[in-house]
């Protein structure tokens, strides 16, 4: 008997297997599938249990885990900054997008906010310090415990499905920064979030943006099962359309002027990502930093990197699709 063709979890059309890749843990392998209808890449394997184990390892040793150690830096740094939101917005595009929504009055201080999947809690803290009414929630008890100890009592260990079931709270803005790519059923997840919105409320999503890359690139995001999906803008539009929500995207043109983005340069090639954790859950030792990487770190510390980036971008960057970056920010609104 032939195996049924797998279906896309976003648009439910047939998808095809592109290749099998190494997972986040050594000696684990995952099939990467792609849906040509909505341009979504995703993993076939059901890895929910493995994902939870990996997250526990990340929260236990996060300051040593490549790609996640910077979040621990942000968690400490925001406490030292007079304007922590400004610091975050200048550091990463996903936080700049949130600040841009504030500047454009999409988010205002008379609104009730919730950050879903707040992790270590530093973005919620930065918004709270800026005068916003916000609560941060996460399903990780470890993450919420760290956030409450560091910043205050406006964090809860909570599952959004339980919140929907209880029906006690509604919000004007739901923030979802780098979360949707981790969930197993994104359509069901966004549908649940939409039930927590006040009339006229919005869900603001940031996630890695497949649309910024050449079409032949199959997977340039965290290795599975840390990321289950690599979404395109069409993916997010499809989710919104299926749920009768409107969708628009933040224009990253202002941020792109002086912040490098690897997708804007002709020499970009799909990287061969290597496992981060050993099969026993230890952080793998990687090659020491190159001379070029060390110089880059020094220039960043001396606050020279932005000037160099601006010059390099003006000379070398491809200005097509200038509104895009390797991260997207989608604003979903409307009622079911």
Automatic annotation (TrEMBL):
Stored InterPro entries: SAM-dependent_MTases_sf
Superkingdom to which the source organism belongs: Bacteria
Name of the protein: Methyltransferase type 12
The organism of origin for this protein: Spirosoma radiotolerans
